[in-house]
């Protein structure tokens, strides 16, 4: 059924390795905003500007001391990674119509689920090999970054050969996946786990990955405090964490992270919108509910024109087919 929709469907892609920053600039005129933002980009992005696909929107502007003070929302991702994703979709027969930063998709999902308030929050979406961290102030994402850590890194750690009871134990990826879904994180340190492995060994294997995840969350919280306050002229520091993604399915993940950070941590459940099977898929939920109106959009101009051309040709072919049918039917009546 999806094959029939290829030429007219709205295809929204989550930008790979995307970043979102709030930037404040002062200019004399509106025309100077693009150049002022460009001059500040090297300080904002973790990669070279030549490798970045960047877009910005003006969120707020006001006159201060004879100058125009503007708050910009700057989104960026690595161009090479984006081009690979776009090419893969194109080879499959799909023409992407929009590239949405993951931070905006997660914020859209949180808004749709009515879990955002005036209190600043941190959204942690733990994917397979990438975790997206988003600082949300009110209902707007003000800071976001992607880090290379996720559910598959736990599986990698558990499949390493280890010595247990005088012999070498090597778990399959299926067994390791079962452990992360049954034991999770922060489990009691007594008794064996199935497949047979001492609990202490299990904890020792997953601990480095969990420590790295905790470190990245703490780092984002620290930066998010400054960003949130600058965004809202004295806004709030994030005092609650929302978790989603594949990693949110780890048992006791929310309890463990709450104990480590000493702030409330809750799961962002999407079952009301996507059903039970998609309860943790906040990113997918956000692409569905927030895609058509999301801004900034990171789709390169060349791909935008390609998508428009494909859709226009598809529409023209359908109109032509209807005209041919109409002419043929009309000729048959005469």
Account of the protein in words:
The chain is α+β, with helices and mostly antiparallel strands and 334 residues long. Helices cover 43% and strands 24% of the residues. It has ten helices and 14 strands. The strands form four sheets. The chain has an eight-stranded mixed beta sheet with strand order 3-4-2-8-7-6-13-14, with helices on both faces. Strands 1-5 form a two-stranded parallel ribbon. A two-stranded antiparallel sheet has the order 9-10. Helix 3 (102-112) crosses helix 9 (282-290), helix 4 packs across helix 5 (173-182) and helix 4 (151-158) packs antiparallel against helix 6. It is globular, with a radius of gyration of 24 Å. The mean pLDDT is 83.
What is the topology?
Layout: E1 12-14, E2 18-27, H1 33-44, E3 52-64, E4 67-78, H2 79-91, E5 98-100, H3 102-112, E6 121-126, E7 131-137, E8 140-147, H4 151-158, E9 162-164, E10 167-169, H5 173-182, E11 192-193, E12 197-198, H6 199-231, E13 241-245, H7 253-261, E14 265-267, H8 271-274, H9 282-290, H10 301-333
Parallel strand pairs: 1-5, 6-13, 13-14
Antiparallel strand pairs: 2-4, 2-8, 3-4, 6-7, 7-8, 9-10, 11-12
Helix pairs in contact: 3-9, 4-5, 4-6
